[in-house]
Amino acid sequence: MGTIACQNRAWHEAGNVPGFYVDIDKGKEGPCVLVLGEMDSVICPEHPESDKETGAVHACGHNTHSASLLGIAAALKEPGVLDGLCGKIKLCAVPAEELLEIEYRSELKKQGIIKYFGGKSEFLHRGYFDGVDLAFMVHAAGKFSISKGGFIGCVAKTIIYKGKAAHAGGAPHMGRNALYAATCGLNAVNAIRETFLNMDYIRVHPIMTAGGSMVNAIPSEARIESYVRGKTFDAIKKVNRKVNQALIGAALSIGTNIEIIDFPGYSPMVQNVDLADVFAEAAASIIPNYECKVVNSVATGSTDMGDLSCIMPVQHGNAAGARGTGHGMDFYIVDPVAACVDSAKLQVMMLHILLSENGERAKSIVAAYKPQFASKEEFLTFIDELNDSGDRIEYLEDGTAKVRIDK
Predict the structure, then answer these.
(1) How many C-beta atoms surround the C-beta of residue 399 within 10 A?
(2) Stated pTM of the model
(3) Of 23, 42, 106, 258, which is least surrounded by CB within 10 A?
(4) Which residues, at least 6 apart from 86, have a Cβ–Cβ distance to it below 8 Å?
(5) Is the pLDDT reported for residue 315 higher than 70?
(6) Distances (CA, A) of 229 to 1, 156, 177
């Protein structure tokens, strides 16, 4: 990582992945507040503005996060804006909140470029957030709002059914159809959905990424990617075992093998209610022309802000300015002033609320916070234990089979 000193600011680039952070030290003892701007896109080829080769498009509004972060930085350079504040401000442009292209990320991990698939998780691991006391960010949405119920978490999965190729017309009986095994697996997962508890907010949504290479051959391999989402780690682990059992049972029924690669996605995010109050207070103060909606519901998406929430108070709010379905072909930023400029104003006001008056507001939030894990190291050790991989069936000579569902 490169570092460039600049008066009371220091610029640090992530180097082998996109992203950077800037430390602004007021020179007066106090809390360190991390402000995050996400850099990411989604894959939606049918969106009119998508890249014609990759299908990538800003159909979730992360481009406005970066614009807001630039606005915050510009505001903090203005004379007098930092007066009366204490502590440190860390502005961070962070990549890879969208947990996409699992095979690509897996290759980066094999090469040792990354360890975690989420940008915030990776930056946490690299030590970029060491010394931070609390963090916040604002996401693009249809209105200024915040949910005190937080977000659900997830485990990410790669599933590979391994069959045997054969001539599809001349000798199909000599093959083991991996595609059929995979479709049986998808049906088996669908058949257990009624066993998921509503209070756990379970979401399982697989996609098939490969199912054969030529039509006149029995497919020897089929690949699926999926998440298992839930409100708590316990719920995620319990349902993930059920899903694995269903997937493995399908492989047994066709006589194929199955490799399941499970790895940590994102932790359930606990929204800090005190920081949520700061968000609402800042909105009422600096952008009174907008209604700020505060709700208590649980958001059923996932975010790597959840990983940070395991060890520090965090807040994930929404700005107005977007229209349409997130990740869909009709998503657009229709009011860039609200999504970028007013979002930046709100976040600068949050910094003033938190770090003025000797940082008493920030200090009280940190003091009241009860982390799920005692340290970054304890948290990372826990999520590392979610990794699991390997073939799950051993076919024996006597016609029986040994099955491994999980560790």
Answers:
(1) 6
(2) 0.92
(3) 106
(4) 26, 28, 29, 30, 31, 355, 356, 358, 359
(5) yes
(6) 34, 9, 29
Q: State the average pLDDT over residues 205-228.
A: 96
Distance of CA 15 to the CA centre of its chain: 21
- CA dihedral sign of residues 320, 284, 39, 208: negative
> Contact at 8 Å (CB) between 64 and 319?
yes
3-class DSSP state of 387:
coil
Count the alpha carbons within 13 Å of 53 in the hemisphere toward its beta carbon: 0
What are the structural domains, with CATH classification, of the chain? Answer: 3-147+269-372 (3.40.630.10), 154-266+386-403 (3.30.70.360)
Buried-state track 69-103, b at ≥16 Cβ within 10 A, e below 16:
bebbbebbeeeeebeebbbbbbbbbbbbbbbebbe
Q: How far is CA 82 from the centre of its chain?
A: 32
Given a contact cutoff of 8 angstroms between Cβ atoms, the answer to whether 89 and 355 are in contact is yes
241 vs 357: CA distance, rounded Å: 50
Give the pair of three-digit tokens for residue 151: 């977000």
- Say if residues 229 and 202 touch (Cβ distance below 8 Å): yes
pLDDT digits (tens, 9 = 90+) for 38-87: 999 999 999 999 999 999 999 999 999 999 999 999 999 999 999 999 99
Q: What average pLDDT does the segment 258-269 reach?
A: 96
Using the structure block, give the residue that is written with the tokens 């965090």: 314
- Three-state DSSP class for residue 385: coil
The region that residue 109 occupies, defined by phi over 0 for left and psi between -120 and 50 for alpha, beta otherwise, is alpha
Nearest C-alpha neighbor of 407 from the set 189, 241, 159: 241
Size of the chain, expressed as the number of residues it contains: 407
- Separation of alpha carbons 73 and 56, rounded Å: 27
Contacts of 78 (CB under 8 A, 6+ apart): none
Q: Return the closest-CA partner of residue 343 out of 66, 121, 81.
A: 66
Q: Which of 41-45, 97-101, 136-140, 166-170 has the lowest mean pLDDT?
A: 97-101
